[in-house]
Design a protein that fits this description.
By secondary structure, the chain is α/β, with parallel strands linked by helices. 48% of the residues lie in helices and 16% in strands. It has helices at residues 3-8, 23-32, 48-60, 74-83, 96-106, 128-138, 148-152, 154-158, 170-176, 186-201, 215-224, 234-252; strands at 13-18, 36-40, 64-68, 87-90, 140-145, 165-168, 207-210, 228-233. The protein starts with a helix and ends with a helix.
Length: 255
């Protein structure tokens, strides 16, 4: 079952995040067993050239490559889709119009506004018709819900045809309420509760980025009904294991 179908059917799918601009990191993460990986072009130094190589490695590893774009912009989204991304995670989708713009940037006319060009996604010009069919059946658009305005407009966003799912951006959501990173604050908890309640009522898949890769937090999300879950990110896995190893050594000997 392709990722789009799994998301639509509410089946659990677990991926992760790539912010280090190197295809070897992408390959290591693929081999770890994640079902999808998001190449983050919003909060990283990843360029289009690097993204192309990372998408290629992820896809050839049998993992679904997604890209979190830097903005909800027609040209930006068109370019990463032409690189061969299977879909996009679009930041700051706060209104119905924002959600419609994200979908239109992925789709060709008459359903969208994406300009038609030939590059890697279209088989370098040799499989355009096949790509058009694939685009309609398998491409993915995830709206990032990361502002209190998005929570207030959630029903309108979820009603947009072509939005496959949403994912909470916990840090920016808390920031929009004046408390970046303070997930214990009542207003932040209330916003998350509304997100969950509305999504359940409308039978829409819920997504969450568990930034710190703690299994207990992932299990908690699953128990709440989240099905599209990103766990950690590359440099946290790297840094966490480095610190764990050094700490264990220091405990064993006097340094």
């Amino acid at each position: 079952m392709v990722l789009k179908q799994k998301i639509a059917s509410g089946k659990l799918t677990i991926g992760s995040w790539l912010q280090i601009s190197h295809p070897s990191i992408a390959e290591v993460m693929c081999q770890a067993g994640f079902e999808w990986l998001t190449i983050d072009m919003e909060h990283s130094a990843i360029t289009l050239d690097s993204a192309l190589e990372m998408i290629r490695v992820v896809e050839l590893s049998g993992v679904t490559p997604l890209v979190r774009v830097g903005e909800n912009n027609l040209t930006v989204i068109k370019r990463v889709m032409d690189l061969g991304a299977y879909g996009v995670i679009v930041p700051m989708v706060n209104t119905r119009a924002d959600a419609e713009a994200a979908v239109e940037a992925v789709r060709y006319p008459p359903r969208g506004m994406r300009g038609v060009g030939l590059f890697r996604a279209q088989g370098y010009g040799f499989s355009f018709e096949r790509y058009k069919k694939w685009l309609e059946e398998e491409s993915i658009v995830i709206a990032q819900i990361e502002h209190i305005t998005a929570i207030e407009n959630l029903e309108h966003i979820l009603n947009v045809k072509g939005i496959d799912g949403t994912i909470i951006g916990p840090y920016d959501l808390s920031g929009s309420l004046g408390s970046p990173g303070d997930f214990a604050k009542k207003e932040v908890k209330d916003a998350l509760n509304r997100y969950e309640q509305v999504s359940r009522e409308m039978k829409k898949p819920m997504g969450y980025h568990v930034v710190q890769p703690e299994p207990k937090d992932v299990i908690s999300c699953i128990q709440k009904g989240y099905t599209f879950i990103a766990v950690g990110l590359d440099f946290l896995y790297l840094g966490g294991k480095c610190r764990e190893t050094i700490e264990s050594i220091r405990k064993g000997v006097e340094i």
